[in-house]
Amino acid sequence: xxxxxxxxxxxxxxxxxxxxxxxxxxxxxxxxxxxxxxxxxxxxxxxxxxxxxxxxxxxxxxxxxxxxxxxxxxxxxxxxxxxxxxxxxxxxxxxxxxxxxxxxxxxxxxxxxxxxxxxxxxxxxxxxxxxxxxxxxxxxxxxxxxxxxxxxxxxxxxxxxxxxxxxxxxxxxxxxxxxxxxxxxxxxxxxxxxxxxxxxxxxxxxxxxxxxxxxxxxxxxxxxxxxxxxxxxxxxxxxxxxxxxxxxxxxxxxxxxxxxxxxxxxxxxxxxxxxxxxxxxxxxxxxxxxxxxxxxxxxxxxxxxxxxxxxxxxxxxxxxxxxxxxxxxxxxxxxxxxxxxxxxxxxxxxxxxxxxxxxxxxxxxxxxxxxxxxxxxxxxxxxxxxxxxxxxxxxxxxxxxxxxxxxxxxxxxxxxxxxxxxxxxxxxxxxxxxxxxxxxxxxxxxxxxxxxxxxxxxxxxxx
Length: 463
Description:
463 residues, Beta-lactamase, 22% strand
């Protein structure tokens, strides 16, 4: 590649001829437009039928991969139990006329599935207590708002063995004359109403003036722009400890099962010793990974990690002990030079470190495993779905041909996976930007992807 004769001075960095010499010209241009230095980027591009990378730029530099961590979680899970492994939730109709559930970490116990499961009990009345066994996992030390100070975000909910409906409530706003009525689903809160305004539909969530505090029911104290029509907002429940009991009590009534016994108790009580009345089957691991990777769900990633650590023999894993299990798996499969660090299964962390070279090595190893088709099927397809569904034209020839996990934090932008070039060649691509202005580097990742889809022309590996 021709050296640039002219130095670029952008944002205090001097761009010399050798600064980005090993990078494709289109990527150099994208870096310049984003005002990012080449040192902010780590890249590995390697054809699956080649022994050496076509491009290796800062491949050994430990970087924060953000949600690319979910690739590690996915491969560790698939390697541990296989794609057909399935969650099962034991359920008992107890001798005292009550109901007992034992959590196993199922990430897909939605209200619809819970209602259908309750109907399967084939009873019309319960007279005993509700017993909830959550002992399969040990609670961690983190709180929902620790990472970003926004505990009302569903993605910040903490994992648990009996995760019902992601501990969430969806509030739907509908116009009703001069008011906007707000209803909750599930109906754990009474309807609310706020006045409408003639303002343009801008930040309608901010206009509602949400009042959310732990242990208190959410309230909306503002107004609502009528121009917004009907909208929905899903929030984490502010009382997650009591959420399962409250939700099950509500659903029992909706399923036509009269509750005649004592009030629902969410105590941590052990499940009965007798054989379960039935099991509520959950998703297979392959299905859960699609739910996790395509929308990049942090909560499902943590549920998967804890479930896999338990399946691997970690007793009643906590988020911390499950992360230690994942760290051991990563070190065994990606090596320890440079040192890696994972602190959870989702990548929602500032401390995680992994090099582009190590992640590329994992992907190449995974390509030879029998579960690789399930891993690829779980990833967003460029331009078509998941976190890559927007602006399909931006990916060029890679549209519909690349299965890629995205990563995004305030100071991280990342992309990694497998690219099927129109020529028929398959490529491993790992690209990670770490910088305070990393989000400006999305164009850099897009330029790399378009270049790889053209079979990486004219590249040479760089140290």
